[in-house]
Amino acid sequence: MAAMARTTDGDGTPVPQRLLAAATRLFAERGYDRTSVQEIVEAAGVTKGALYHYFGSKEDLLHEVYARVLRVQQQRLDAYADADEPVERRLRGAAADVVVTTIENLDDADIFFRSMHHLSPEKHKQVRAERRRYHERFRALVEEGQQAGVFSSATPADLVVDYHFGSIHHLSTWYRPDGPLTKQQVADHLADLLLRALRP
């Protein structure tokens, strides 16, 4: 993907980004299984050769729709986790941030979870490993606070993390940009709920 920043069209948009944008829109409108490679390349204004050069297959496009979001979230979580701040501030920041980044990418996440059964066993395993790495880093923050006595140990860290991410996974069913709460307000409420659940 290193060539992504160099190979562009007339308006400067990298070709892989154009392909992803077209695929995301078509997957959302028609569904993954009802979208053809030809429709994607026509919508992106490129050739099939360009798609196969960057992604190899339609399945690779579907994987990248989700993987690009997860990469951003992992980088941001790592920054929070590594910050020189008390663990409760780091956890609250990470807990709110994953809500905001999920809301900012709701379409991508929704497309992926509706279509991930189309992935090959190998790609499915890769996605699970990527998600597990994120969850384990998040859980480590909870465990750090529990071991330090800052958080209650009454509830196992795994359940605490599942509780928070369960709320996040349902965002696409009810959150609306024109609703009564902004994405930051939703993030703050859910992060506060998490911290209250961990209060000694």
Structural notes for this entry:
- The chain folds into 2 domains: 13-56, Homeodomain-like (Arc Repressor Mutant, subunit A, Orthogonal Bundle); 58-198, Tetracycline Repressor, domain 2.
- It has 10 helices and no strands.
- It has helices at 15-30, 37-44, 48-54, 58-82, 87-104, 106-115, 121-147, 157-169, 171-174, 183-197.
- Residues 13-73 form the HTH tetR-type domain.
- Keywords: DNA-binding, Repressor, Transcription, Transcription regulation.
Show unreliable segments. 1-9
Number of DSSP-assigned strands: 0
Distance between the termini: 46 Å
Structural class: mainly alpha
The radius of gyration over CA amounts to 19 Å
Number of helices: 10
Broad CATH class of the largest domain: Mainly Alpha
Q: What is the averaged pLDDT score?
A: 90
What sort of overall outline do the alpha carbons produce when their principal axes are compared? elongated
Number of domains: 2
Strand content: under 5%
Task: Estimate percent helicity.
Answer: over 70%
Q: So, the CATH homologous superfamily of the largest domain?
A: Tetracycline Repressor, domain 2
Query: Strand-and-helix sequence, N→C?
Result: HHHHHHHHHH
Largest sheet: none
Do you know the CATH topology of the largest domain?
Tetracycline Repressor, domain 2
